[in-house]
Amino acid sequence: MAFADGPRGLYRPELEHDACGVAFVADLAGKARHDLVEDGLTALENLSHRGASGAEVATGDGAGILVQMPDAHLRAVASQAGIDLPAAGA
Question: How far apart are CA 88 and CA 78, in angstroms?
């Protein structure tokens, strides 16, 4: 998908070429949002024609999504269990 007005966000039209098989969904401000996860799952579903199915048991094919650690949630659960976690990002 090319933007008529040139570069936008992480998109650079000079790097555009004929290929498919990857998707990248992110908030450029680094804000965690549930709709990004939904968009990532939609992108993954749309890549099934490229074999992005997680079907290779022995080695994996890289299919999946990567999300931020839910730090606040993990801290709440760890606290209830009496576990002290290191500082966020450590």
Answer: 13
**pTM given for the model:** 0.53
Which residues are tagged catalytic?
20
As given in the structure block, the two tokens for residue 84 are 């002290």
* CB-based contact 33:49 (threshold 8 Å): no
8 Å CB contact between 65 and 75: no
Residues 36/25, Cβ–Cβ less than 8 Å: yes
Contacts of 71 (CB under 8 A, 6+ apart): 88
Torsions phi, psi of 57, nearest 5? Answer: -65, -45
Cβ–Cβ < 8 Å for 50, 23: no
Q: Give bridge partners of residue 88 from the DSSP assignment.
A: none
pLDDT averaged over every residue in the chain: 80
